[in-house]
UniProtKB/TrEMBL annotation:
The keyword Zinc-finger does not apply. Transmembrane segments: none annotated. Residues 1-24 form the signal peptide. PANTHER family: LEUCINE-SPECIFIC-BINDING PROTEIN, PERIPLASMIC BINDING PROTEIN OF ABC TRANSPORTER FOR NATURAL AMINO ACIDS. This is Amino acid/amide ABC transporter substrate-binding protein, HAAT family. Pfam families: Peripla_BP_6. One of its GO terms (biological process) is amino acid transport. Gene3D superfamilies: 3.40.50.2300. InterPro entries: BCAA_transport, Leu-bd, Leu_Ile_Val-bd, Peripla_BP_I. Keywords: Amino-acid transport, Signal, Transport. It comes from Mesorhizobium australicum. The lineage of its organism: Bacteria, Pseudomonadati, Pseudomonadota, Alphaproteobacteria, Hyphomicrobiales. Belongs to the leucine-binding protein family.
Amino acid sequence: MTIRMKAAAAALASALLGAPMAYAQDPVIIGMVLPMTGGTAGYGKDGKMSADLAAEQINAAGGILGGRQIQLVYEDEKGTPQDGVAAVQKLMTRGGAKAIIAGMNSSITLAESAITKNRILHVNPAAQADAITEQGSPWLFQINNTTTGNANTFHSYLLHTMKPKTVAFMGENTEFNKALLENFKHAVEESDAELVEIANYDGTTTDFTSIITRLKAASPEMIYVVDAYPARTAQIWKQIRQQGGFPMEAHSAGTVQQSAILPAEGAMEGVVTGDIFIAEGATGAMADYINAHREKYNVEPNKVGLVVYEAVKVVAEAMDKAGTDSDYDLIAKTIRDNVWQTPRGELAFDEKGRSKAPFFYIHTVKGDNVALRETFDVK
């Protein structure tokens, strides 16, 4: 039975029994915590477009739970842990949220998940740090690959396909960076490459000239930059280009969107990266999603939009299948026990609440976007 048919059946049953239809009329509120301002505001803009598209599609198909519409309520995490926590608390205590979708930056998501743990269903769409889902929170789920999941494929490609003899590494001193650096060190040990220099910096750094100068002095064949903040990413690559660049250049997987490429003004041209999404060559459900997004907004979606879209769909469909918006044990079990159809294909969640993307794509920055370099089936 379709959602629309179930809604009609519920309405008929209610009329026959003389019961009020308040339940079907009350919306199911889903709290959306995104960076609408601050250094990652580009992510917030991309995520909101796809979230609104998902809600529109769900509601047009009859809603959930016998015809109830879903309502997305947004709060701005402003790119800081304290603002992320405040946004989550507001949605939980005053916003009437039945679920929270929050997670762009790993450090912020870790802070947010400490508030939601054992209190409300929390789906993290984009933040990658393994530590987020290592906590053992039964109602916490992750749509994007973990840092390790992306890094295993990406680092293997950098070291065994591109085959640099020497590599220099630089990144912000965050949980995301620490996990990637440890993974990369292990990958280097199993390759013919040598890690000749490592440079970490604080989030307040804006001038990277001295760091880049030090890295260039080591004469590495490859520079590998790890940073998830679009505005800072653009600044780093502008300063790298000002000093002549490096023979091979790479940037952390899952973090390169147009919100970094465009302000870099050509400085990221040729940089190798990777992600779980690329619009180029899309077919089937992915093409349907891309076309719907393009029709609504006159722009193609990116990975951030995709994972937020999938998060809204999984939350709504799991509630509908479980028959409840507030029995989180049952909703969580429903998420784990089922396979969910998304634009990428089938998504399944493990006991830690992690999903795994069926494909991983190696990209090269080309013009104002990324171009497909190679595809890996990681199912």
